[in-house]
Design brief:
By secondary structure, this protein is α/β, with parallel strands linked by helices. Helix content is 43%, strand content 15%. It has 13 helices and eleven strands. The strands form two sheets. The chain has an eight-stranded parallel beta barrel with strand order 1-2-3-4-7-8-9-11, surrounded by seven helices. Strands 5-6 form a two-stranded antiparallel ribbon. The relative contact order is 0.17.
Length: 369
């Protein structure tokens, strides 16, 4: 079975970070997403039924001290196995920190996932950036993205070779020295897994151009999307004519009227935002006074409260659909979406927005429509 993420059915839509409490909304409201296993299971079944294309988890080992954000996060490989076992069509990615999981373990776990899902598993490679997570594993965080991605490259080369090599092999590299007799079984159903790399830095985007099928990166708005897509495609073409798709992320507040959408946005992402949490998360990701101007930080803060910096899809079904269509027209291949309450909001989004996208011709007919 070919992984549906490669299907030629138009613009891809996925759910981002449902494995984490609060999803991507840094808010204190009581109805924020639980991130519980039972809610994730119900969500996966619903997403599969309504035609969502993929599930993409966030990988977190250490929470954010003093915040309500991500105080509980389901481990992504185990989570993905459960999601794949409970669904029939949807692609499910596991987010793996290449610095924290030995390649032979990752290769076997990911191949096992793919067999659970009959070819529907995917891999989101994360080189790591959160110092507290490195420290929890007794590791030093490399000082530059280039160093972190050099490690990730050797890790991915090993995983790929474990899936493709016909016999045992040895490896003696810079980051993985003295490995002997490497081999794994089973191998992925289709020989390999589709790869997403979430990256903003130049080193990260270059890694995606060399290795990934999809670059997940901030485009900020549809108008800037074309330049990001062109740059990614040109970079990939330099590596033997490779092709790479570009995904971005967005948070959704879709309501029958714009007033209702804006009132809910104000309620959760302004009146009840966890502002201390916003500042902690932004600082942890290097968005601080040393790197950005006061005006830029002031612009970022509301988006981080609302959806971890994603693009806002706020308004009526027509308005939300129009913005998604603008992303598609700019050449962006898909969006990873978050909601304050995924279960409570997905059905309305699917029933109202997806048919509009189909009518506009950017998506094929989805399951159940």
């Amino acid at each position: 079975m070919e992984n549906g993420i490669f299907a030629e059915n138009g613009f891809k839509l996925g759910l981002f970070a449902s494995n984490a409490s609060s999803g991507l909304a840094i808010t204190k409201i009581p109805e924020r997403w639980s991130g519980s296993w039972s809610d994730n299971l119900r969500l996966a079944v619903l997403a599969d039924q309504v035609g969502i294309d993929f599930l993409l988890p966030v990988g977190r080992w250490i929470g954010w001290p003093g915040t309500t954000f991500h105080d509980s996060v389901l481990e992504t490989i185990t989570w993905a196995g459960g999601m794949l076992a409970a669904t029939e069509r949807i692609s499910v990615f596991a987010t793996v920190h290449s610095a924290l999981l030995p390649p032979i373990v990752a290769a076997k776990q990911l191949a096992t996932l793919d067999h659970i899902g009959n070819g529907r598993a995917g891999l989101n490679i994360v080189a790591g950036w959160y110092q507290a997570e490195y420290e929890a594993f007794g590791l030093d965080l490399p000082g530059s993205p280039a160093q972190r991605y050099a490690h990730a490259q050797e890790w991915w080369d090993l995983v790929s070779k474990l899936w493709s090599n016909q016999g045992p092999f040895d490896h003696d590299g810079e980051f993985f020295p003295g490995l002997r007799g490497l081999q794994v079984g089973p191998r992925p159903v289709n020989g390999r897994l589709p790869v997403i790399n979430a990256a903003v830095s130049e080193a990260g985007r270059e890694f995606a151009a060399r290795n990934a099928d999809f670059l997940l990166t901030a485009t900020f708005d549809p108008a800037r999307g074309s330049a990001v897509v062109d740059s990614a495609k040109q970079a990939a073409a330099r590596h033997g004519g490779r092709q790479v798709g570009v995904f971005s992320n967005a948070f959704v507040v879709c309501r029958p009227s714009r007033r209702e959408a804006e009132e809910f946005l104000h309620y959760y992402a302004d009146e009840n935002a966890d502002w201390a949490g916003v500042d902690t998360v932004m600082s942890g990701q290097g968005i601080n006074a040393q790197s950005f101007s006061e005006a830029q930080i002031g612009m970022f803060r509301p988006r981080f409260a609302a959806g971890h910096g994603g693009h806002p899809l706020v308004g009526t079904p027509d308005e939300v659909a129009d913005t998604i269509i603008s992303f598609a027209r700019a050449g962006v291949g898909g969006l990873a979406l978050s909601f304050v309450d995924y279960l409570g909001e997905l059905e309305y989004f699917a029933s109202e927005v997806l048919p509009r996208l189909e009518k506009a011709g950017i998506r094929g007919r989805t399951a159940g429509s």
